[in-house]
Prior knowledge:
Elements: E1 5-7, E2 10-12, H1 24-28, E3 31-39, E4 42-43, H2 46-59, H3 68-82, E5 87-94, E6 112-117, H4 124-129, E7 131-135, H5 156-167, E8 172-176, E9 182-185, E10 189-194, E11 197-200, H6 211-222, E12 227-229, H7 234-238, E13 242-247, E14 251-258, E15 261-262, H8 270-284
Parallel strand pairs: 7-8, 7-14, 11-12
Antiparallel strand pairs: 1-2, 1-6, 3-4, 3-5, 5-6, 8-9, 10-11, 10-13, 13-14, 14-15
Amino acid sequence: MGRKVWLNGRLVSPEEAKISVFDHALLYGDGVFEGIRSYGGRLFRLEEHVRRLFDSANGIRLAIPLTPEEMGKAITETLEANGLKDAYVRVVVTRGVGTLGLDPNRCKDSAVFIIVDKITLYPPELYENGLEVITAATMRNHPNAVNPRIKSLNYLNNILAKIEAIDAGTLEAVMLNHQGFVAECTGDNVFIVRDDRLFTPPIAAGILKGITRDEIIAIAAELGIEVREENLTRYDLYVADECFLTGTAAEVVSVVRIDKRTIGSGKPGPVSRRLADEFHRRTRQ
Ligand code: PMP
């Protein structure tokens, strides 16, 4: 079975899956997307991802030419057509082909495509030993610009922060918000543990409302671990007992060094491990 891409209602080969150079997604980053994992052939939190996609589209006044139910079916169909059980699914909605000039009303038909692939965000040994990160000088989008809750096709701030991380010899960067508080990483949400309590920035800090973040908050509550959504400074990260990141692609990964400060024991901590183990159990059960 060859690889298939879902493009505007048809399953086509990757070679046939083409988008116009006049699509405003390419010209202006005008569009939205989602990343969804499947475990053992089951799409994890599909409904939540489809909902967020429609919310993102609504946020940029983009009409998706499918109902949420049709979108869910298309995603499932594309996964099955690719014969992968453990996969990463990318769903993209573009503004469509338009004229040169920003006016989205001149774009007639939005394009929808769905790619099924594999993804490894960080090397496997870092899941055992933890990750080193820096804080980036590039800040997260101001919530009154493109709100970070919108998963838009414009990730340039995050890409600039990622470049800073790579330049510093690390793989990931913590981005601060316009007030100097911790927002999130370039593609992951941030948690810390201090005195057996879990802390994570609130949505109002200007972050993506991560579906993995929601899952970890729910797991913590079930395990009787207190969770607080509070503004955090860089210093709060430095003096944390534990730190970890969450995301669909990253899953749950510990951070053991931030800006050259060792976090806790310098190894993934017990609370993070418990939460990660329970996350793995839920996704793979
Ligand atoms: N923050 C950003 C900026 C992201 O792009 C993502 C998703 N890649 C996340 C957080 C994590 O969100 P989720 O758990 O829903 O994948």
